[in-house]
Amino acid sequence: MRFNVAQLLKSPAGTSREYDLDEDITDIDEYLDVVAALIGRVRFLRTDNGILVTGHVRTEIRVPCRRCLTPVTVLIELDLEEQFRPSVDIWTGAILPLEPGEEEATRTDAHHILDLTEVVRQNLLINVPMAPLCSPQCRGLCPQCGANLNEGPCGCHYEESDPRLAILRGLL
Ligand SMILES: [Zn+2]
Ligand SMILES: [Zn+2]
């Protein structure tokens, strides 16, 4: 997701460009199981001190059901809004210092490349549902044998009324 913004940086504030995204982000983060392309549209707006990126993108991620651990595919939609600043002055080539609170990820590089990858990765991590369900009726796993109870009863007998068993189970 790299864009050369040299021309845009040379343009007056208020100039904008739009790009359609269709990106393979399978390897964007080792903890994210991305199963669809990143699709959407972004707008780059030249501002007085950089480029404001806004846009709406979506992708699909696989996460385990919190009860039965079966992978569930969830649609994730992101509204992006991020101010990027140049790391070098477009006219003089002078290196611009990192401002307090500013991240390298939201700076263009020395060749005026604006890379959206890190911004998208951070937004995805924030928006991944931590504990989805494969269905509201998911029966989960048998606490004794671990069988997926959505596939039918496992044959275990529960003796929850027997206090001695309940204590033993508590020790496991
Ligand atoms: Zn489930
Ligand atoms: Zn069982």
Q: What does the model show?
A:
The protein is an alpha+beta fold and 172 residues long. The chain has two domains: 2-137, no CATH class; 139-172, no CATH class. The chain has three helices and seven strands, in the order βαββββββαα. It has helices spanning 6-9, 117-127, 163-171; strands at 2-4, 16-23, 33-34, 38-47, 50-64, 71-84, 113-115. Strands 2, 3, 4, 5 and 6 form a five-stranded antiparallel sheet that branches. A two-stranded antiparallel ribbon has the order 1-7. A hairpin with a 6-residue loop joins strand 5 (50-64) and strand 6 (71-84). The N and C termini lie far apart (49 Å). The model has no long low-confidence stretch (mean pLDDT 91). The protein binds zinc ion (2 copies).
Q: What is the topology?
A:
Blueprint: E1 2-4, H1 6-9, E2 16-23, E3 33-34, E4 38-47, E5 50-64, E6 71-84, E7 113-115, H2 117-127, H3 163-171
Antiparallel strand pairs: 1-7, 2-4, 3-5, 4-5, 5-6
The protein binds zinc ion (2 copies).
The site of one zinc ion (ZN) has 7 residues, from loops.
Main attributes?
3 helices, five-stranded antiparallel β-sheet, alpha+beta, 14% helix, 172 residues
Task: Give a brief description.
With 172 residues, the chain is of the alpha+beta class.
